[in-house]
Amino acid sequence: MNKYEQLALWLSNYTQINTWLHFNVVRMESGGFSLQSVPGNTIVAEYNDGSCERELIFAISMVQLYDAEQSTNNLDAMQEVESFEQWISEQTVLPNFGDNVTINSIEILDHVPSLSVDNENSLCNYLFQCKVVYLEQ
User: Fold this and answer.
1) Half-sphere exposure (CA, 13 Å, Cβ side) for 137?
2) Could you give the C-alpha distances from 49 to 15, 27, 58, 81, in angstroms and in order?
């Protein structure tokens, strides 16, 4: 499995993800989750033994009900985003990127998600980025 497949498998442990986690596709339906790839796999540091520390950035898209007025839908959606971010930060079992790879951390890069509103269908796409920091031998 590649790194994104491993991330998707790991993310599927979050109980609020419905039966399907989309990859690089945002389906505008309430409850939809998508793992988005972000180009690049940055080398942060290279070491004399040939190993290197890398960062893999990815994005999470969550589609929730939205109301143009102040409503519990909007508050519930932000609570869901915060719950998901908290779940990520509390995980002690991290994805398996294979032999000779040690994941050091998974971090949320922006705690305020980007919003994309579909007023016609009363939906909002909440998008935030994360990164995996890992050591590759």
Assistant:
1) 6
2) 40, 44, 28, 40
Is residue 134 within 8 A of residue 103, CB to CB? The reply is yes
Backbone angles phi, psi at 57, to 5 degrees: -95, 140
Least confident of 4-8, 70-74, 111-115: 70-74
The per-residue DSSP string of the chain comes to: --HHHHHHHHHTTSTTS-S-EEES----STT-EEEEEEEEEEEEEE-TTS-EEEEEEEEEEEEEE--SSS-HHHHHHHHHHHHHHHHHHH--S-----TTEEEEEEEES-SS-EEEEEGGGTEEEEEEEEEEEEEE-
- Residue with structure tokens 């690089």? 24
pLDDT digits 0-9 by tens, 37-75: 998 889 999 999 999 999 999 999 999 889 888 778 888
Give the model's pLDDT for residue 31: 85
Q: Pick from 36, 112, 29, 123: which is nearest to 78 by CA? A: 112
Alpha-carbon gap, residue 69 to 100, rounded angstroms = 51
